[in-house]
Automatic annotation (TrEMBL):
This is Hydrolase. One of its GO terms (molecular function) is hydrolase activity. It comes from Thalassotalea marina. Keywords: Hydrolase. It holds the Pfam family HAD_2. Transmembrane segments: none annotated.
Length: 211
């Protein structure tokens, strides 16, 4: 069994900048503070991980209530923007997921540092069918590595069997190094020996997976 795991924002859908704008706006509305968007300085680059660190730095109390309020505003912002302008997939992503689904020897999962509810909204807007695919998110844990472990367990009922991970950020690469799994870069934010700009050339992508 070959397990293939995907990040979502910037990997399957063109939503990285859009997502950041909505997140910043939600934090500002709820707390009155501008949040630093240099994500690489945060220990855990996930929605919940970033907010946990932000709350400590700003000495914000009632963190559970603040997080839920930010999440509510964030989801509202996402819905408003999607209604005005649907999200685009990374070219070929929907077709590639569909191709993987047809293969009997492949398990698929999604592991996102974003919240589950926003992930579903954006994937649906982009026309990517993730029905029956296990998803792990910032709802499950604040640590990206733990989110990936949870996704693996949901997909193959075990951990440590190894998988190929498609992601676009430096935090994705670092998590894959720590877990010792195969990383494929999507986009051009980093330099990596295994990289694709999109999923249009399926044979090349399959090669990186070992299919």
């Amino acid at each position: 069994m070959i397990h293939v795991m995907f990040d979502i924002d910037g990997t399957l859908i063109e939503s990285y900048d859009f997502d950041t704008e909505c997140f910043v706006e939600a934090v500002k509305q709820v707390t009155g503070y501008e949040i630093d968007t240099n994500w690489s300085r945060y220990k855990h680059v996930t929605d919940s991980g970033i907010l946990n660190q932000f709350f400590k730095e700003k000495h914000i109390e009632n963190t559970e209530s603040a997080l839920e309020s930010i999440k509510h505003v964030f989801l509202s912002e996402i819905q408003t923007r999607i209604a005005k302008k649907p999200i685009n997939e990374i070219l070929g992503a929907a077709a590639f997921i569909a191709s993987l689904k047809k293969k009997e020897n492949v398990a698929i999962s999604l592991a996102t540092g974003g919240w589950y509810e926003s992930a579903i909204l954006k994937l649906e807007s982009a026309g990517i069918d993730v029905s029956s695919i296990p998803i792990s998110s910032a709802n499950d844990h604040y640590s990206r590595i733990e989110i990936m472990k949870i996704a693996e367990k949901r997909a193959v009922k075990s951990c440590g069997l190894g998988f190929t991970y498609f992601g676009d950020g430096s935090w994705d690469l670092e998590a894959c190094k720590e877990l010792g799994v195969n990383f494929v870069l999507v986009g051009d934010k980093l330099e990596h020996e295994q990289s694709i700009l999109n999923f249009k050339k399926q044979n090349k992508v399959f090669d990186y997976i070992g299919l």
